[in-house]
Amino acid sequence: SASDVQDRLSSLELRVQQQEDEITVLRAALADVLRRLALSEDQAATMKKMQPGKGQPALREAYSMSCIANGSSSSSSRKPSHSPSVSIARKETLASAAKSEARGWSDRRVAPGRARTTAAASWSRQPPPPSWSRQPPPPSSSPKWSRMQRKGDYIKMFMRGRPITMFIPSDVENYEDTRTELPSEKLKLEWVYGYRGRDCRANVSLLPTGELVYFIASVVVLFNSEERTQRHYLGHTDCVKCLAIHPDKIRIATGQIAGVDKDGRPLQPHVRVWDSVSLSTLQIIGMGTFERGVGSLAFSKADSGIHLCVIDDSNEHMMTVWDWQKKSKIAEIKTTNEVVLVVEFHPTDTNTIVTCGKSHIFFWTWSGTSLARKQGIFGKYEKPKFIQCLAFLNNGDILTGDSGGIILIWSKCTVESTAGKGPKGVYQISRQIKAHDGSLFTLCRMRNGTLLTGGGKDRKIILWDHDLHPERDIEVPDQYGTIRAVAEGKGEEVLVGTSRNFILRGTFNDGFRVEVQGHTDELWGLASHPFRDLFLTCAQDRQVCLWSSRDHTLQWTRLLDEPGHCAEFHPSGVVVAIGTHSGKWYVLDAESRDLVGVHTDGNEQLSVMRYSIDGSLLAVGSHDSFIYLYTVSENGRKYSRSGKCTVSEVVIPSYHVHSCRTAFLIHGSNIISNKGTWNNTGDIPNGCKLIRNRSECKDINWATYTCVLGFHVFGVWPEGSDGTDINALVRSHNRKVIALADDFCKVHLFQYPCSRPK
Question: Which residues contact 51 (CB under 8 A, 6 or more apart)?
Answer without folding.
Answer: 45
